[in-house]
Amino acid sequence: MQDRLVAHHRILGIDPGTLLMGYAMLDVEGRKTDLMFFDFLDVRRFDGQYARLQQEFFFIQKLIDEHKPTCLAIETQFVDKNPQTMIKIVHAQGIAIAAALSRDVPVYEYSPMKIKMAITGNGHSTKQQVADMLARFLHISPQNMPSKLDATDALAIAYCHFLQLGLPVLAQNGAKDWTTFAKRNGLADTASTTPNQRLIAALAKKK
């Protein structure tokens, strides 16, 4: 574990999508964690699915070439009632993975439920709840939050991988999950019986 604590990690998180692709970069040095950037790529102006996938492929390669991540973390196991939607998302996942492998960057996959569990302690949290927790963990001001949740989804994926490394959060009173965060910040609400309810109660108290 000691070797993992002192190692340098630069994590590229990708939230695959056919119209909007979220991306984020976390830099980890020992116990220090820096958010380099997070945003989304809008490929809706390109005509056709394959042209959009091509733009995503080249964009990820460019991110890798410019910022030299040590790994890529990506959301997988997407499930949708519409088979055509699932197929398109799988294509986007494959493009992101192929771009990383073309640059010899290791790939780590996480399911949506695992990502939510890692961030909030509740695998059924909403995207907004995940975004709110990330803002608190990483001290992101409201004006610096991107307009689309695809960006915070990508950051959640990168942050989930960060937690899998066994590395603690840098922030004062930091925590690796919602339960620890709530205890350290005195936010436990005995009247709330689920992580989701405790999260809502905590956010209300912090406003």
Write the layout of secondary structure elements.
Blueprint: H1 2-6, E1 8-15, E2 20-29, E3 32-42, H2 49-67, E4 71-75, H3 83-102, E5 107-110, H4 112-120, H5 127-138, H6 149-164, H7 178-184, H8 195-206
Parallel strand pairs: 1-4, 4-5
Antiparallel strand pairs: 1-2, 2-3
Helix pairs in contact: 2-3, 4-6, 5-6
Report what the structure shows.
This protein has 207 residues and is of the alpha/beta class. The chain has one domain: Nucleotidyltransferase, domain 5. Helices cover 48% and strands 18% of the residues. The protein contains eight helices and five strands; from the N terminus they run αβββαβαβααααα. Strands 3-2-1-4-5 form a five-stranded mixed beta sheet, sandwiched between helices.
Outline:
By secondary structure, the chain is α/β, with parallel strands linked by helices. It has a single domain, classed as Ribonuclease H-like superfamily/Ribonuclease H (Nucleotidyltransferase, domain 5), CATH 3.30.420. Helices cover 48% and strands 18% of the residues.
Question: Which parts are unreliable, with pLDDT below 50 for 5 consecutive residues or more?
Answer: 1-6, 167-178, 187-207
CATH superfamily: Ribonuclease H-like superfamily/Ribonuclease H
Main sheet: strand order: 3-2-1-4-5
- How far the N terminus sits from the C terminus, by CA atoms, comes to 37 Å
Question: Radius of gyration, rounded?
Answer: 17 Å
